[in-house]
Amino acid sequence: MFIKKFIPKILLNYDKEYMFIRLGFVRLFIILMLLGGWIAATAAPTNNDIDTKAPKVAYLIFGIIGFLVSIFIFIFNFYNIIKMDIFVDIPWEIIFLGLDFVFMCALFGTSIGCSAAEANSRDKVIRKTVNGTSTQIITYDEVNKGTFATAAVFGFLASISYFILVCISVNRFLKIRKKNKQQNSPST
């Protein structure tokens, strides 16, 4: 009881149903997948090669922005901030649906890029002439083997989770719209 005096009321009034009924766990899964993919992409070697650097940078950008946006959405839903009086008029469901759709597409594309970069980084061979003979030097670092593939797997899992959220949000939106149409239509 003593601790409750120091904790803001908004943190004590969280939505228990969001975690179980309204897909809070899916949002947490997305957050974890984005974090894991971002860490894997950070560890991926590029060796200043455009075939590997572009997918890595794209994944890092979309991964961290998606991570932050997902945390923002989770906090807004979990603590019922979207239901506060000053935010009631904002169409949060449509905004969150749009953001989820954008990041679903972006992560799907960057995951494909990361999987292609994994294949490219494994096949990179530099030919050098040493003492008149042509030798092959493999530039792929064995310690970081598979990091692009790991980032791609995390990205695909996050994309699938985003797809689930988008489908459920669209379904919920259509049900509400149908219900409103039925209520507004004159009964015969």
TrEMBL record:
Keyword Transmembrane helix: yes
Name used for this protein in its record: MARVEL domain-containing protein
Keyword Membrane tagged: yes
Keyword terms: Membrane, Transmembrane, Transmembrane helix
Lineage: Eukaryota, Metazoa, Spiralia, Gnathifera, Rotifera
Positions of transmembrane segments: 20-39, 59-82, 94-113, 148-174
